[in-house]
Amino acid sequence: MRILAIILLNFLSVSILGQSAKYSNEFLNVGIGARSLGMSRAFIASADDVTAGYWNPAGMVSMQGRHQAALMHAQYFAGIAKFDYLGAGTRLDDKSALGISVLRYGVDDIPNTIDLIDSDGNLDYDRISSFSVADYAMLLTYSRQSPIEGLDIGGNLKIIRRMVGEFASAWGFGIDVAGRYSIGSWIFGAVLRDATSTFNVWQFNEENLLIEVGDSIFNRPPDNSLELTIPRVYLGVSRSFELTGKLSLLAELNASVAFEGRSAAILSSGFAGAEPVAGLEINYGNLVFFRAGVGNVQRITEFGGQKRIVADPSAGLGLHLGNFHLDYAMSNISPQTISLYSNIFSIKYVFGGE
Known about the structure:
By secondary structure, the chain is mainly β. Residues 1-20 have low confidence and may be disordered. The protein has helices spanning 2-17, 34-38, 52-55, 206-209; strands at residues 67-76, 81-93, 96-112, 129-145, 151-164, 168-183, 186-193, 198-204, 226-229, 232-242, 247-258, 267-268, 273-284, 288-301, 307-321, 324-331, 342-351. Strands 1-2-3-4-5-6-7-10-11-13-14-15-16-17 form a 14-stranded antiparallel beta barrel. The longest helix has 16 residues, at 2-17. It contains four helices and 17 strands. The protein has a single domain, classed as monomeric porin ompg (Porin), CATH 2.40.160.
């Protein structure tokens, strides 16, 4: 476990020290809510509750009841990394809603062996301390019905806080804009995340960062303390079907479009790459829900240069008892073979009636 923690820390450090715009603030792409994760994150169009503050801010105005609150705790990489979410939303009136979402993704209790050797050159294990690498985000959401029938609009103000023990920390800010259009049994959704680019400004504690290891890059802080997250577009379309008196089906197809030409994307070019996601939900009597989906669809290159397409399925269950909603999902955080599946639970409570 300790070795895995060190590997994960090195991965996070490369992202920080390299000032990469391609994978900046990736913790915000993990996904929240067991309902959506059970559908492989195909939730851009369907988002119509408090979790819409994360998935599609425009959908929060469609949430049931006057107020909603939700929370989730998930563990990844065999429990090394922990992801927590807490959200709340309220309808200001019949045409507008306001929400807040707080997220934390972190690795805790990482051994710090910088002071392991004392001034006399002896190993002193009492000098080992620990630190955390944690990313925090607060999303302030506003959603409103537009004058156009069926069209809702919304947006997020994002406040980012990233911390690497006492070595480095950053503040970041960004904006998301979104729309959601309903016509009959069809719903169309679009979200432009980091619309104006989300920027993180890093500060480095040089006294703790400097390590005498020859000419290593870790001897000095990076020359550039500004980290940018370029915009990304999420598109979704969903349709509901009435199967029998108590049985209905919701199906959704999403596409994530990134503008850095990710070579692993199914549809990619030097300008942009698109990754598809599909999910469905079977509703029995608005009491029990069965969910499944396919995500993390990517093109990988194997030894020998051969290419193949991989994808990760997911599944989930939901139970609604009055105003209390309990959801479970078995989902994967990353593409096939990189990490194990995680069991994820989330709860939601509706205040002020359905």
